[in-house]
Amino acid sequence: MALAMDCATLNGFLDRVFPQISGQIRVESVDAQVLIARLLVDEQHLRPGGTVSGPAMFALADVTIYLAILSRIGEVALAVTTNASIDFMRKPEAGRDLLAECRILKLGRVLAVGDVLIRSDGMDQPVARCSMTYSIPPGAKG
């Protein structure tokens, strides 16, 4: 399956359409099965106790699934989250970036379902798992 958007195109899209997260989340790699994104963890992502906040992990998961969908259907800014579930499994390390690995489980005409595992960079065990469903606007998928 040919990708509609590669790493450079996805990162350019993020910078252009979502400047509020520019420089925070970057696509590391993408192919027909997996998209990996990195949260460049800094002070704004931490909470008391020296760990990455839940909202920062949720944002990483949400953006990662969104980008994985766009990598397949092209630039569709109005694809939106319709359902989300996240499990926080262990404390991420504050001094490490987070890596999110996304697999799209279903890509239909109007709905897409994806799963993300988030790990601290260099660690094997996931710190969080997220499942999301996205709504794709009519006529957007080409």
From TrEMBL:
Domain of life: Bacteria
Enzyme class: hydrolase
EC number(s) per entry: 3.1.2.-
Entry keywords, A to Z: Hydrolase
Occurrences of domain Thioesterase (ranges): 49-124
InterPro entries: ACOT13, HotDog_dom_sf, PAAI_dom, Thioestr_dom
CDD domains for the chain: PaaI_thioesterase
Alphabetized GO MF terms: hydrolase activity
NCBIfam families listed in its UniProt record: unchar_dom_1
Family as reported in the entry's similarity comment: Belongs to the thioesterase PaaI family.
Protein name stated in the entry: PaaI family thioesterase
Protein's organism: Paracoccus mangrovi
Lineage summary: Bacteria, Pseudomonadati, Pseudomonadota, Alphaproteobacteria, Rhodobacterales
